[in-house]
Amino acid sequence: MATRVLVPSGVLGLGFDREALRRAASDRPDIICIDGGSTDSGPFYLGAGVSKYSDASVRSEWRELLAARAAAGCPLVLGSAGTCGTDAMVEDMLAATRSIAEAEGRRLRVATLKSEQPAASVREALQAGRLAPLAGAPEGGIAAEDIARCTHIVALAGAEQIAAALRTGADVVIAGRATDTAAISALPLMNGEHAGAAWHGAKIGECGALCSTRPMSGVIGLEFDGAGCTVEPHADGARCTPESVAAHMLYENADPFILHEPGGHLDARGAAYDALDGRRVRISGSRWVASETYTVKLEGARLAGFQTTALAILRDARYVANARRWLGRLETFLAGEIPARTGLEPRDYAIEFRLIGVDAALGPLEARASDPVEVGVLAIVTAASQATATEIARLANPFLLHFPLSDDEDLPTFAFPYSPAETERGPLYEFALNHVMRLDDPMEAFRLEVTEVGHGPAG
Amino acid sequence: MARLGDAVRAVRSKNAGPFMVTVDIFCGTDAAFQQVNAAVTASAVARLYRVDPERVGRYELPALRVVKFSFPRPVPQGSRGDRDMHGAQWAALLAEAEFGEPGEGLRRPSRP
Description:
The structure holds two protein chains of two kinds. Chain A is an alpha+beta fold.
């Protein structure tokens, strides 16, 4: 028996080829799976507990996916709701599902799977020796205070928790934070398909058509069986080739052969990628290696201050040519003036400058030098409160506007693109955890609930 | 010495989680793979990115004609001081480096 999984796109909110989705849904897949989140865009979303994508994009796409689900007559699974996968994001997608079901006269059975972890239970896990650091974890280990300072902590659900949600008979599963692959691999694993292929195919399909020659088209079909997985793009003109598929194993993956998941890891060292024709690729030869203990990865973000930024543009050719020297003088000047005028200690604030057009992206690693037309000077102030950050940016403002290259020359005036020159960026969050937590039962850190929404005919 | 980006099909980089970055060199041809694979060592990449060579993972994928490197980010993604949230512009540093015979390592770009 084969298990056919339809992946409409790499993430809810990014868009998909509607005609391809319609065609793929009418082909009656066994399940439709889409991912709603990731850490790709930084710690802010988890720290603040909000989604990256616009409500309009998410809700309009979700309506289309619910319609595709009805046409296909199969479950629809959303993993990592609302980018960060916090409980509030699960509730938000449940509310969206309810309002769509009510508006369209449809009755749906919705399973919600919540992944958020109270700091107290993570602290207990730390004290009980159930937390282990991953490669690249913050040095010096993690302390109970670090956990307490997190605004949100989520555990990444795996295939076991998604499977539990599917076993409720739900039409729709809305999961909090989950691994990118869990929603896709769950049903093939429940059906007894080849475990290595289930995880490998899920990894290849998790970003939708990114594994094809037409990455923006979104829609990918994965067919799992007892020996392997076949990947097929659904958009007109899109092709999967052994290269396009195999290359996705490298994507955002430190080790191109090993993928850690709750309960074990995928070992793709023996994988073969074979073209079935000009557009479909067969994956086989991967192994699933179960671990002795069951662990889930944790993500946590904590508040690290507040930021205010200011931007000035140097266009005068002499200042452009001497931008680094000018900035060095300005930094020295401000390092004296800010503490003198505010009474703040240097440890109470940070002011960083980025020379856009010189080395803003790479900083000290930058190896190239050329003559830009203009240089953007971005000042980023971080302090314990928004008011302090803005006060420091305002203090720096007249100097960012007028600071001269030498003491014996007319004061320049640079270009501010707007007024006021300062922009309050709000809170700065940072990722604080890079750990796994050991569980005795895969469900013990997750909460599963079933709700009926809407009215009218079921499904 | 040749500019690496001119000798291969593509060089890309991306975060691999918030604490690591990974750089993929898609060589395109077997000849380019052999050349790059011999010349671009983990220690050369460590010097270019100023990271501890002990912490640079190096992977050879001859079937894909890819050489891949993974190493810790100097600043975790999004923490204060991070310059590139997605880590995708770091590839430019490697693409613009010059490489030659095995043992010569990587040279920072000489042209302006």
